[in-house]
């Protein structure tokens, strides 16, 4: 019986290692889209910039993606990191999502990891309010002080008008948007009404079904993509591409992120525009 148990344990470890999956099961909090409301008291929330990086969690032993895939960071990157579970974003700079993904989702880490910082925004296993968790995070990061680990700056704003003004400033500087987190909220596994994301546009993912040949200036290039959302809605995505992306478009079967401004009467994204390709390892839940 003991021999059988040892064999089973080894088999489980082998499957985990070869699949690239972590055995750690951690809570994952997701944001709700911000809706302007007179009932929302802005100064009850901490506000931070929404970073366009790769969502990651530190298990106390390793970095994993939102889906539990192991992130192969170099040993020096996480040296002296705490035993506590951390939730955050692997980030390089504004507007560099694809560059960041090309670094952190590789099986073999390279020197470009020196451009990356793990921007921490929460403690999933803490039973305290967000306000208290922020204090804990500050103390944790200060105690280890590695260059690769930082807490996302959090601030407060007095009114919804001040929030809109701050959003304008962030977007003008190349940022994506803002996150609002209620000071008294507990960490919630799943979508939380107390964690809000605010952007000037909506975004979503779709699978590439076909390349449609361009016309005129794009006669020898890809003109648009035929894509399909997870809900089965098909539409053409034809704007937002650079010349290089039209010459070498996202592969059929791959996923892309697009931005849009509401839906048409037929349920299709209005004014949809390509943002970037989306690696399978980083597809949202």
Structure description:
This protein is of the alpha+beta class and 285 residues long. The protein has two domains: 29-198, DNA ligase/mRNA capping enzyme (D-amino Acid Aminotransferase, Chain A, domain 1); 202-282, OB fold (Dihydrolipoamide Acetyltransferase, E2P), CATH 2.40.50. It is built from five helices and 15 strands. Helix content is 21%, strand content 31%. It has helices at 2-19, 97-104, 130-144, 160-172, 243-247, and strands at 29-33, 45-50, 54-58, 63-65, 70-71, 86-91, 117-122, 149-151, 177-182, 190-198, 202-213, 222-229, 234-237, 255-260, 273-278. Strand 4 and strand 5 form a beta hairpin. It is globular and about 60 Å long.
